[in-house]
Structures are given as structure tokens and as C-alpha cells.
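hey
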């Protein structure tokens, strides 16, 4: 399940890069993405990270594990985009849900929720909904 969620975080990052690439207010795009697996609590539609369980950095097409206390560089570089994005994901086992929160800038962030399912040793995420956005 972790691999599926990391892959979805990277896809969200690449979609954001593609979307912003041709906008005049996005001169400089984030150079990398910090991905954190988190334990979180839910309030309304929003999952709030309480503890980082594992972390990775995605940069130049490569993914590497990093220390859990590594912080993304969230200095604004162009318009409203950070120099490094942040994606957090986790599981809500009680509700059989998975979630992803992505933060690309001061006012550019979204949360997604998925249904989790398993068949044997295979896992799937489906029914993506945007649970919040800023």
C-alpha cells in the first residue's frame, strides 16, 4: 500500500509541475518533493499529521529515503510556489480509507481521500475524492 501511495504523491507533484509550467505567475517551479508517511487524526474532511513514520525525497526522477525529521524547504520561490513541495499520506484503517495531503505553496494545497481494497496480496486505491483544497 505504501508504494501505491508514494506513486500517487509523485503523480500529484508531476501534474502540478505540468499545470504550472506554462503559467506566467510560475517562473520557478519546485525542484523536489518531500513525501512523508504520517500517523494523523481527522477533523471534518482534513487529516492532520501527528507523527512522521517514514520520509522520502523525490527529485530528478529519483526517490530516496530521508530521515523522518527532514523538513521540506517551504520558502516561496516564485509567485506562491514553494521551492520544495510536501506530500503526506496515511491510512485510516477504521474507515478503510487512505489519504494524501499535498502542499505546493502558501495557497496551493489539496487533500485527497481513497477507498482501500485488497485482493490476496494486491492492494488498490479507488474512488478518489478531493476532500479539501486551498
Amino acid at each position: 500500500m505504501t508504494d501505491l501511495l508514494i506513486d500517487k504523491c509523485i503523480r500529484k507533484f508531476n501534474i502540478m509541475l505540468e499545470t504550472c509550467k506554462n503559467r506566467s505567475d510560475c517562473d520557478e517551479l519546485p525542484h523536489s518533493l518531500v513525501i512523508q508517511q504520517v500517523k494523523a487524526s481527522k477533523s471534518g474532511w482534513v487529516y492532520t499529521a501527528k507523527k512522521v513514520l517514514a520520509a522520502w525525497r523525490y527529485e530528478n526522477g529519483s526517490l530516496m529515503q530521508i530521515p523522518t525529521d527532514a523538513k521540506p524547504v517551504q520558502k516561496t520561490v516564485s509567485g506562491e510556489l514553494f521551492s520544495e513541495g510536501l506530500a503526506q499520506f496515511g491510512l485510516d484503517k477504521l474507515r478503510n480509507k487512505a489519504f494524501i495531503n499535498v502542499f505546493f505553496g502558501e495557497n496551493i494545497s489539496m487533500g485527497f481521500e481513497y477507498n482501500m481494497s485488497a485482493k490476496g496480496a494486491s492492494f488498490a486505491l479507488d474512488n478518489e475524492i478531493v476532500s479539501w483544497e486551498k
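Strands lie at 32-43, 46-59, 62-66, 76-78, 81-92, 97-105, 108-119, 122-133. The radius of gyration is 15 Å.
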